[in-house]
Specification:
It is a single chain. By secondary structure, the chain is of the alpha/beta class. It has a single domain, classed as NADP-dependent oxidoreductase domain (TIM Barrel, Alpha-Beta Barrel), CATH 3.20.20.100. The chain is 38% helix and 12% strand. The protein is built from ten helices and ten strands. The strands form two sheets. An eight-stranded parallel beta sheet has the order 3-4-5-6-7-8-9-10. Strand 5, helix 3 and strand 6 form a beta-alpha-beta unit. Helix 2 crosses helix 3 and helix 7 crosses helix 8. The N terminus is likely disordered.
Length: 296
C-alpha cells in the first residue's frame, strides 16, 4: 500500500511550539494537525456552539471537530466564519474535521454526504474527513469514496473513527491509501495500548474522543494526587498524558474558562512515575458503544 505523499509519522510532539496551542503532529501524508482541538459532540446547533467555536479560536485553538450526526455543522461553520473575521484568522490556519454517519456509508452515499457537510459548514474543503463507525459490510466502500475525495484534492487528509485493529487491517488490505487518523474513545480507564502500538507501527495518528470520560474521572484519587503535585487540574493532567503519549485529543467544552483550562497543558510535564500510574488505571472500560457490538 502506498500513501498519497510518503512522510514518516513518529507520533512524537514537535516541541518547537510546545508552549502554545500551535503544537502540531505531522500525519503520514505530510499534513500537520494540531495536538489539541475543540470537540462539539452533543453541543446543540445554535448560539452555544457558535460561541464555543469563537471562544476556542480567540484562545488560540486552530482545530475544530464536528460530525454530520452531531447536527451542528451549520453553527460550527458560522462560528468559524465569525471567528476568522473577529480575530484575523485565515482558513489555512484552521484544521476542520467532520465525519460521515452510518446511514451514508457506501461509495456514492459517502461522496454525497461529504458535499452535504461542506454545504452546511460553508467551507470549500475539510482538513480531515472520517468514517464515523466501522459498519460491517459498508466501511470498505465508504473508504473508497474517501480515497476518491483525497485523490481529487477535495480533502487534505482522510481517516477513520472507532476502528479497532481488525477494521484497520481490512481498510489497509483493500484500499490504496492508508488512513491518516483513527479517532477513538480513549481515556485513563480505556488506554487503548494495543491499538496505539498498532497505529504507531503503521504511521496512523491516534486521536482521543471523550478524553475526560465525560467528566467521570474528575474526582479520581490517583489523578487528583498527580494534579495537586503539579498545581494543575485533573483535566489538564489527562490531556497532558495524551500529549506525552503522542495522542491528539479534542476535549469538549462550551465554557470559555474550561476551554482555556484545557489548552493550558504546555507548561508542565508529567514524570515517568505519573505516566505509569495513569497507564495502570486502565480497565478497558468504555462510556461509548463497543465498535464490534454497536447497534447501528
Amino acid at each position: 500500500m502506498t500513501n498519497h505523499v510518503n512522510h514518516t509519522n513518529n507520533n512524537s510532539p514537535e516541541e518547537t511550539n510546545a508552549s502554545n496551542l500551535s503544537t502540531t503532529i505531522t500525519l503520514n501524508n505530510g499534513v500537520t494537525m494540531p495536538y489539541l482541538g475543540l470537540g462539539v459532540f452533543k453541543v446543540e446547533d445554535g448560539p452555544e456552539v457558535v460561541q464555543a467555536v469563537k471562544s476556542a479560536m480567540k484562545l488560540g485553538y486552530r482545530s475544530i471537530d464536528t460530525a454530520a450526526i452531531y447536527g451542528n455543522e451549520a453553527s460550527v461553520g458560522q462560528g468559524i466564519r465569525e471567528g476568522m473575521a473577529a480575530y484575523g484568522i485565515s482558513r489555512e490556519e484552521l484544521f476542520v474535521t467532520s465525519k460521515v454517519w452510518n446511514a451514508d456509508l457506501g461509495y456514492e452515499a459517502t461522496l454525497a454526504a461529504y458535499e452535504a457537510s461542506l454545504a452546511k459548514l460553508g467551507l470549500d474543503y475539510l482538513d480531515l474527513y472520517l468514517i464515523h463507525w466501522p459498519v460491517q459490510g459498508k466501511y470498505v466502500d465508504a473508504w473508497r469514496a474517501l480515497e476518491t475525495l483525497y485523490q481529487e484534492g477535495r480533502v487534505k487528509a482522510i481517516g477513520v473513527s472507532n476502528f479497532q485493529i481488525h477494521h484497520l487491517e481490512d481498510v489497509m488490505g483493500s484500499g490504496k491509501i492508508k488512513p491518516m487518523v483513527n479517532q477513538v474513545e480513549l481515556h485513563p480507564l480505556l488506554a487503548q495500548t494495543d491499538l496505539h502500538q498498532f497505529c504507531l507501527a503503521n504511521g496512523i495518528q491516534l486521536e482521543a474522543w471523550s478524553p475526560l470520560m465525560q467528566g467521570q474521572l474528575l474526582d479520581n484519587p490517583i489523578l487528583k494526587g498527580i494534579a495537586e503535585h503539579h498545581g494543575k487540574s485533573i483535566a489538564q493532567v489527562i490531556l497532558r498524558w495524551d500529549f506525552q503519549r503522542g495522542i491528539v485529543t479534542i476535549p469538549k467544552s462550551t465554557k470559555e474558562h474550561r476551554i482555556l483550562e484545557n489548552g493550558s497543558i504546555f507548561d508542565f510535564e508529567l514524570t515517568n512515575d505519573d505516566m505509569t500510574a495513569i497507564q495502570g488505571m486502565n480497565e478497558n472500560l468504555r462510556v461509548g458503544p463497543d465498535p464490534d457490538n454497536f447497534d447501528f
